[in-house]
Design goal:
Blueprint (H helix, E strand, L loop, with lengths): L1 H12 L3 H21 L2 H13 L2 H24 L6 H17 L4 H12 L4 H28 L5 H23 L10 H47 L5 H13 L12 H12 L4 H35 L11 H14 L6 H12 L6 H13 L1 H9 L10 H12 L4 H9 L1
């Protein structure tokens, strides 16, 4: 089975020269059209603003990194094979680089290939990668449906998004329960391949899928921070809800793309949805180009080194035999253990949750002033819990604190609840 993955990767690398040339020419053509039509002066002003106000870009990069870390944790939940989250994060970053450097989503092929090279059974590498992508698009469709349906999205488009969400969720559940239908008329080798894939899908099971889904959903919510930060640089009036919804809507159109990073399709889809929600068309195009440029910069600056690391690892044959964990994996594992051990009974876990939930508001000084005041208000409660061990048998009593909060503030933070449950 690993040979099949190797052959698939080899075919991707040996794509016809005319196909690669066509993709390059199409990319150049799209870039020329974008340069001629967008507001270059305003775009350049936003770029010049970055050295003076780096916080928006730093916040976007942090949120984008956190999103990929959550995707790695979600993928880890789907796997039965033991592979560190740091390694899965590295594979995802390498795939991100390939998706932006090469046409035809080459990074999607690299994910199961690299996972198999690092010891994951080939059928499990393929099935979990496919399931992760199905979960991605189900989460995107759900986010776009909820975030955009309350704006100017036409009713028909909202219905289509809703149907797509339901169809993707049903598909995922069918695959992990019933598996894949194996046609009897296929050649023997293909029948064996599909049968192996079917068993791998069923091996995931609904339980693992339900553990991964909240992490994936939260990761795509965080990815909206890139558009939100780009809007801040341009001075555009784009709400966080619209940024999240427009990002989800745009990525939905990236299922297949010919040009590297989906140049052209990305800008067109984001410009359309932003213009539909009241952003002037020329401003929407400039905002889409800036957002995509930030993602390209991240994929090369962050994803590029991970691609090199994975390439060197394969050349040295380190992925095929047991080895000691890298410094990054050790640091990531220790950080995760510090957050995860003890869950809500430790201040580290609580602070980590608060910091992640605060990323969308990273650009608001008023928010951080309120954050510090709120944090100071709960210090006495923390000191009580730190001094006196909380009896585990009384964990259900913690719901009393939540009930008091709801009665006092009449506010429910769905994102906070989803994050805590996922962790």
């Amino acid at each position: 089975m690993l040979a099949d993955l190797t052959q698939s990767a080899r075919l991707t690398r040996q794509a016809p020269a005319w196909g690669n040339a066509a993709a390059v020419l199409l990319s150049i053509g799209v870039a020329v059209v974008l340069v001629l039509t967008l507001d270059r002066a305003r775009l350049w002003s936003a770029v010049e603003l970055v050295p003076r106000e780096p916080l928006p870009v730093i916040a976007a990069a942090a949120a984008y990194t956190a999103a990929f870390w959550l995707k790695a944790l979600g993928w880890q939940r789907l796997l039965s094979a033991s592979l560190p989250a740091g390694r899965l994060f590295s594979i995802l970053q390498a795939g991100l680089f390939l998706n932006h450097a090469l046409p035809l989503k080459a990074g999607e092929v690299s994910r199961p290939y690299l996972a198999a090279k690092h010891g994951v059974p080939s059928m499990e590498a393929i099935s979990t990668t496919l399931m992760a992508r199905i979960t991605d698009f189900a989460a995107l469709a759900l986010i776009a449906t909820i975030a955009l349906s309350f704006g100017s999205l036409p009713l028909a488009a909202g219905i289509v998004l809703g149907i797509a969400t339901a169809a993707l969720i049903v598909t995922a559940l069918v695959l992990v329960t019933a598996g894949v239908w194996t046609p009897s008329f296929l050649p023997g080798r293909l029948v064996a391949l599909v049968a192996g894939l079917r068993a791998a899908f069923r091996g995931i099971g609904p339980s693992r899928l339900l553990q991964a889904a909240p992490l994936v959903l939260l990761s795509w919510l965080l990815e909206g921070a890139v558009l939100f930060s780009a809007a801040h640089l341009l001075g555009s009036d784009v709400s966080l809800q619209l940024a999240i919804g427009a990002t989800a809507f745009t990525v939905l159109f990236q299922v297949v793309h010919v040009t590297p990073g989906g140049i052209g399709v990305y800008e067109t889809s984001m410009t359309s949805v932003l213009a539909l929600h009241g952003v002037p068309a020329d401003e929407a195009l400039t905002l889409a180009v800036l957002t995509h440029a930030l993602k390209f910069a991240y994929s090369f600056a962050v994803g590029g080194p991970f691609f090199v690391f994975e390439g060197v690892s394969l050349l040295k044959g380190r992925g095929d035999r047991p080895r000691s964990a890298s410094s990054f994996e050790v640091a990531a594992a220790r950080a995760w253990n510090a957050v995860n051990e003890g869950k809500p009974f430790t201040v580290v876990f609580s602070l980590a949750v608060l910091v992640v939930l605060s990323l969308p508001e990273a650009l608001s000084p008023e928010y951080w002033r309120s954050f510090v005041v709120a944090l100071a208000a709960v210090v006495p409660l923390y000191l009580v819990f730190a001094r006196y061990d909380f009896p585990l048998k009384l964990r259900a009593a913690l719901w009393v604190y939540l009930a008091l909060f709801l009665l006092a503030f009449r506010f429910v933070d769905v994102a906070a609840i989803a994050l805590v449950v996922a962790l």
